[in-house]
Design brief:
By secondary structure, the chain is mainly beta. Helix content is about 0%, strand content about 40%. The protein has one domain (about 5-110). It has a 3-stranded antiparallel sheet, with no helix packed on it. It has a 3-stranded mixed sheet with strand order 5-4-6, with no helix packed on it. About 10% of the residues are buried. The mean pLDDT is about 85.
């Protein structure tokens, strides 16, 4: 969400694995009967994440919520901006209201931003 558009939520819904040439920000790989999920983090946000949680493997019917936040330093006057990324991903067929409930798996990469 951005202040410029009155904080309207933005989201993308896709079916299937992404095209490997696309910049999706998340690595998805089917590994046997499981889906391996590993979001990429931006190298420009703070704090630096030298150690990250391992990839999550989802079985069919499971879903994951992964959250990570950043602080970006401005170039003038020391002002900074905040960014929160939330990835909701289901493996297999899912009801449209699935992501309104409690996830099967969750990863919290929220950091204290000073």
């Amino acid at each position: 969400m951005h202040e410029a558009d009155s904080f309207q939520p933005r989201f993308v819904t896709r079916e299937g694995l992404p095209d490997s040439a696309a910049d999706t920000g998340v690595v998805l790989r089917e590994d046997g009967a499981k889906l391996r999920v590993q979001p990429a983090v931006t190298p420009f946000g703070m704090p630096r994440r030298w150690r990250r949680p391992p990839a999550v493997r989802l079985a069919r019917g499971e879903w994951l919520r992964w959250q990570v936040n950043y602080r970006f330093a401005g170039t003038h006057g020391g002002e900074w901006t905040y960014r929160l990324d939330t990835l909701n991903i289901a493996y297999g067929t899912a009801a449209s209201e699935l992501f309104l409930g409690t996830p099967t798996r969750s990863v919290n990469e929220l950091a204290a931003l000073r």
